[in-house]
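Schema walk-through. Below, the input block comes first and the output block second. Nothing else is stored per chain. Lengths vary across the set, and this one has 181 residues.
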Amino acid sequence: MSDITGKAYWGVHGAAGLLLRAPHPDGAHAVLLQHRAPWSHQGGTWGLPGGARDSHETPEDAAKREAEEEAGLPRDLLSVRATAVTAEESGTDWTYTTVLADADELLQTVPNIESAELRWVVEDEVTALPLHPGFAASWQRLRAALELVPWSPRDQARATPARTVEIENGGLVLRIVGLAD
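--- output ---
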């Protein structure tokens, strides 16, 4: 799809990607990155598993579906913690939403045809990779947002009453889910 200027964007109903973090053995947090297949848009760069939203999907549902399709991640092992709209197309309803989620451990991945590789990367090492331009433009704000989102193992997240708060951080409006009152 493209807007009136001819600028291309993916998904009639918007798009979403999953920024999944898990504890790294050295005590730091790692995030799962996708090395995009050479034939894909911005092939050869690193970004998040994600893609177009279907008309009936929330950004959270789309991000989890795409992560399952592109990385083989079981949806029931992902704890959604927050969402942030990281790109918008002026004059349209189109948005790209980054869904921040946690896993209890570095999950095994199974790449599909859209992935040259999937890799858990310690947060401090993300910028050493050639990043997808959209992800590169939002990574520092997302990283700061991750610091605001409480780490919650899956069992604790299930026990916490659902409550959503919105905070603004560096131009991102974060919807943080599952905070205790």
